[in-house]
Design a protein that fits this description.
InterPro entries (chain A): Bact_Cytoskel_RodZ (IPR050400), Cro/C1-type_HTH (IPR001387), Lambda_DNA-bd_dom_sf (IPR010982), RodZ-like_C (IPR025194)
Keywords (chain A): Membrane, Transmembrane, Transmembrane helix
Radius of gyration of chain B: 21 Å
Helix content of chain B: 25-40%
Protein name (chain A): Helix-turn-helix domain-containing protein
Radius of gyration of chain A: 50 Å
Oligomer: heterodimer
Strand content of chain A: 5-15%
Number of helices of chain A: 13
Distance between the termini of chain B: 22 Å
GO molecular function (chain A): DNA binding
Number of strands of chain A: 9
Helix content of chain A: 40-55%
Number of strands of chain B: 18
Structural class of chain A: alpha+beta
Largest sheet of chain B: 5 strands, mixed
InterPro entries (chain B): ATPase_NBD, MreB, MreB_MamK-like
Largest interface: A-B, 25 and 39 residues
Chain lengths: 328, 347
């Protein structure tokens, strides 16, 4: 602080004393506190609220005492480096950190966790897919001990009781015929054809769950499926607009309330062909033994036909005819 | 983003205090480069067609009330907001051209415009669009109390309250500011213009003399005061005598002007008192300790600070160079345009 400024500030005090005002009186006239008056007179400006206020108080005080304001303010500006004249330096309070700190480490670990979860999900899904495939094979074995596969249609809901009854009343009858039918049918395995009479979407999955056909058929179009392993699981969008044939025989569609129909067509092929030769006589013998009890065989055959007409499967028809043959 | 920064290197950004009485323009890095009255004089062609700008700013202000039939001098802003959209645009264009000469390939400037806190959405949009059509690349709005406080050098970022009273031509804005934001603000449409009107009315009523608004402003600047002075001032005024219909000269004293301005001064003090009533107690404590700062042209009225000091019992200081406070505050905001997104007002 230069001497001129100190002198000017001392003038403030002497002018106040000359008027006979004590600190409190001067403070009351300026509406500030007496400590602020002392700070002004002694040049301790850091005790005042800020440069802009200190300058204003100084001006008000000099004016109150009828002193010349300009030299005082000029000296003040020299002393403070003009800080009471400038606009505010800091306009916004500095903010420290974001509210939630997503630092690199946390991001890395969450990424790692996400990758692990994805891998786990993939592995579980893969396992689930492989276990689901043996199911149709199981149904097939329940019907025929002689494994030579032919096509067999098993309709999901309505066919099951029929199939069950069929297997219940004469397991032997059906078993007996397989050896006969197997050779004739094996050539036609997989010939699944669709004839569209209207627009209808169709999806076909083979035994391993792969989609072998997924299309929107237009009216008059013919689509056939040759690849993939039976049994096929078919999903039809509009049952009234499609005719399905499997191995040359039409497949009747279940009359669902909605147009969507699901069904399974065909039987899983089994490779153990050497067993069939050995096994074949036994069912035949069983069938022959049924000859003695004709009425039961007749009922069996009629039941077989009934099953065939219900579900209209080529194989069952073959079974039934062969049973009747053997019965006669 | 990068492209914007690149453009920023070549364009000069402007802060505009578009006031009712005066328009000030601050150019980044240069300071205040323009301070002109917000007046436009328009020459109207034959049959009312083909309007052309005759003069803008100081020159146009001298024409106010002195124009022939084919020239009209207009103040396009009223009460702090745009009253005539087209003329405001023309005026802004003229001022911007003067401070930001258009060169081939030079990008248009970014502009910060100060708006009254009490401006409605429609008024804010009008100001924004006016600036946009005047050739701004980007327009940001900043509320006047905030700009005034920044320009007055108040510690706006601190967690203590700063009270600022910006008495402009059309509006008086009372703002309480803390932590870089406006905590409370009150805007009354009373300012220098209302004081001029009050003087015109007073002289007509008491002297039977008619004076123009420019003369009233002159009287206000010369002898106007807001608190009884120890030695009375007086000045000679010329006007038209209403009874005789001839121009006459008469003398008027500062005490009479004080009496004339009682109503607008009372409205300003009322707005300040209302703001003090509405301020949260912690901040009111800060204001009691530090006081308030007067900015704007109205702060130049003699002893207005003393009137407010006596009426409120709080310390009142007048900011340095109060006329330019808002523009300087806008300019300060301009310098930190990238960082200060939060300071700007929403539309």
């Amino acid at each position: 602080m230069d001497e001129g400024f100190v002198e000017l500030l001392a003038q403030l005090r002497s002018a106040r004393v000359a008027r006979g005002w004590d600190l409190a009186q001067a403070a009351q006239k300026l509406h500030i506190t007496s400590t602020q008056i002392t700070a002004l007179e002694e040049g301790r400006f850091d005790e005042l609220p800020g440069a802009a206020f200190a300058r204003g108080y100084l001006r008000n005080y000099a004016r109150l005492l009828d002193l010349d304001v300009e030299p005082l303010l000029a000296a003040y500006d020299r002393y403070q480096g003009g800080s009471g004249l400038e606009a505010s330096k800091v306009v916004l309070p500095r903010s420290e950190l974001p509210l939630l700190d997503y630092s690199g480490k946390m991001l890395f670990f969450s990424l790692l966790l996400a990758v692990a979860l994805i891998l786990l999900g993939w592995w579980l899904w893969g396992r689930g897919g492989s276990t689901s495939s043996p199911a149709p094979v199981a149904t097939a074995t329940s019907v025929s001990a002689a494994q030579h596969s032919a096509a067999q249609v098993v309709m999901s809901t309505p066919a099951e009781p029929a199939a069950l009854t069929g297997s219940a009343f004469s397991p032997a009858a059906t078993a007996a015929t397989t050896s006969v039918t197997a050779s004739t049918l094996s050539s036609q395995v997989g010939a699944l054809a669709f004839h569209f009479t209207g627009d209808c979407w169709v999806q076909v999955r083979d035994a391993s769950g792969n989609i072998v056909l997924s299309t929107l058929g237009r009216a008059g179009q013919d689509v056939s499926v040759t690849q993939g392993q039976p049994p096929y699981r078919i999903l039809v969008g509009k049952a009234s607009a499609v005719q399905i044939t499997y191995a040359g025989k039409p497949v009747t569609l279940p009359a669902n309330a909605l147009n969507v129909a699901r069904m399974q067509v065909g039987m899983a092929p089994v490779t153990a062909s050497s067993n069939s030769a050995k096994l074949a006589p036994t069912p035949l013998a069983a069938a022959q033994s049924q000859q003695s009890s004709r009425p039961s065989a007749a009922t069996a055959s009629s039941a077989g036909v009934a099953v065939a007409s219900d579900i209209s499967t080529f194989s069952e028809v073959a079974h039934a005819t062969s049973v009747t043959h053997s019965a006669s | 983003m990068i492209f914007k920064r690149f453009l920023g290197l070549f364009s000069s950004d402007l802060a505009v205090d578009l006031g009712t009485a005066n328009t000030l323009i601050y150019v980044r890095g240069k300071g205040i480069v323009l301070s002109e009255p917000s007046v436009v004089a328009i020459r109207i062609g034959r049959h009312g067609a083909d309007r052309r700008t005759q003069a803008v700013g100081e020159e146009a202000k001298r024409m106010l009330g002195r124009t022939p039939a084919n020239i009209i001098a207009i103040r396009p802003l009223k009460d702090g907001v745009i009253a005539d959209f087209q003329i405001t645009e023309a005026m802004l264009k003229h001022f911007i051209k003067r401070v930001h000469p258009q060169r081939f390939l030079s990008p248009s400037p970014r502009i910060i415009v100060c708006v009254p806190y009490g401006a409605t959405q429609v008024e804010r949009r009008a100001i924004r669009e006016s600036a946009q059509s005047a050739g701004a690349r980007e327009v940001h709005l900043i509320e006047e109390p905030m700009a005034a406080a920044i320009g007055a050098g108040l510690p706006v970022a601190e967690p203590t309250a700063s009270m600022v009273v910006d008495i402009g031509g059309g509006t008086t804005e009372v703002g309480v500011i803390a932590l870089g934001g406006v905590v409370y603000s009150q805007s009354v449409r009373v300012g220098g213009d209302k004081m001029d009107e009050a003087i015109v009315n007073y002289i007509r009523r008491n002297y039977g003399m008619l004076i123009g608004e420019s003369t009233a402003e002159e009287i206000k600047k010369t002898i106007g005061c807001a608190y009884p002075l120890s030695d009375t001032l007086s000045m000679e005024v010329r006007g038209r005598n209403l009874a005789e219909g001839v121009p006459r000269t008469f003398s008027i004293s500062s005490n009479e002007i004080l009496e004339a301005m009682q109503e607008p001064l009372g409205a300003i003090v009322g707005a300040i008192k209302l703001a003090l009533e509405q301020t949260p107690p912690e901040l009111a404590g800060d204001i009691a300790e530090r006081g308030m700062v007067l900015t704007g042209g109205g702060a130049l009225v003699r002893d207005l600070d003393r009137l407010i000091m006596e009426e409120t019992g709080l310390p009142v200081i007048v900011a340095e160079d109060p006329l330019t406070c808002v523009a300087r505050g806008g300019g300060r905001a301009l310098e930190e345009l990238e960082r200060l997104g939060e300071v700007f007002a929403e539309e």
